[in-house]
Amino acid sequence: xxxxxxxxxxxxxxxxxxxxxxxxxxxxxxxxxxxxxxxxxxxxxxxxxxxxxxxxxxxxxxxxxxxxxxxxxxxxxxxxxxxxxxxxxxxxxxxxxxxxxxxxxxxxxxxxxxxxxxx
Amino acid sequence: xxxxxxxxxxxxxxxxxxxxxxxxxxxxxxxxxxxxxxxxxxxxxxxxxxxxxxxxxxxxxxxxxxxxxxxxxxxxxxxxxxxxxxxxxxxxxxxxxxxxxxxxxxxxxxxxx
Lengths: 119, 113
Hints:
The complex is a heterodimer.
Chain A: E1 3-7, E2 11-12, E3 18-25, E4 35-41, E5 48-53, E6 59-61, E7 69-74, E8 79-84, E9 93-100, E10 106-109, E11 113-117
Chain B: E1 4-7, E2 10-13, E3 19-25, E4 30-31, E5 36-37, E6 39-44, E7 51-55, E8 59-60, E9 68-73, E10 76-81, E11 90-96, E12 103-104, E13 108-112
Parallel strand pairs in B: 2-13
Antiparallel strand pairs in B: 1-3, 3-10, 4-5, 6-7, 6-11, 7-8, 9-10, 11-12, 11-13
């Protein structure tokens, strides 16, 4: 059974870079059947799609965040990662990694990790 | 960008009664070449990640009870729970995957009356 697990610091200072990793277990990220996504949810608010990566390394980012985002993949570790630069309090959210089809509806989600931006 | 708007924002329904949640997209999410609506529904219970309920607007994900149904086409969609159970208390989201950036509705909070 495939599972996704987010990991990374829960607290990031303003202007710094948020870095998270999603580890895929029980299946291969290189299967080619899926796109691997990041989605976030500010406390008490709705969902925002951040971007996706394919196992080959091709990416697509939400234009609202594009200038600050990098999503990468490490197939040898079965992981993909998110970097969000120049964070502010508005980036405080639960960050989810999620598996998506092509085109992506999201059938499998990690449990999410809360990242707080604060000094 | 496609904007997804759900109504109502919150809803209280008695146990065993019908619950209806609406979702409207700012432009059609029906792809004419395959006649598919690029619309998904999710259920998010408190403290949990969203769970996929429907894709292609009306295709039920495996394991989803048949009291849940999805319908609609083009720009107007509906999620219906035919007989509300206590475990259905959650926030429900629609999502379009017709075009990037993929977008969600603001959510509808469903409670027991």
